[in-house]
Write a structure and sequence with these properties.
It is a single chain. With 69 residues, the chain is an all-alpha fold. The chain has a single domain (3-68), classed as 434 Repressor (Amino-terminal Domain), CATH 1.10.260. It has 6 helices and no strands. The radius of gyration is 11 Å and the shape is globular.
Length: 69
């Protein structure tokens, strides 16, 4: 399980609730949680603000590698 998903579930949030609260695209966040696509800079920024954690803490090494590509 990715760090993003762990954080969301620990707060008992659905993917839809999280995205509505931050104005994010559900598909984009879902893909980021599943490591299928790197999130945009805006998505990373909004998730970082929401979780109050640095962007680097939200992604494991595989997720960070995807962002760098």
């Amino acid at each position: 399980m990715t760090r993003l998903r762990e954080l969301r579930l620990s707060r008992r949030l659905s993917l839809i609730d999280l995205c509505r609260a931050r104005g994010l695209n559900v598909s984009a966040v879902s893909q980021a949680e599943r490591r299928k696509a790197a999130p945009s800079a805006k998505t990373r920024h909004e998730l970082s603000r929401f979780y109050r954690e640095p962007q680097e803490a939200l992604f494991d090494r595989e997720g960070l590698a995807a962002i760098a590509e």
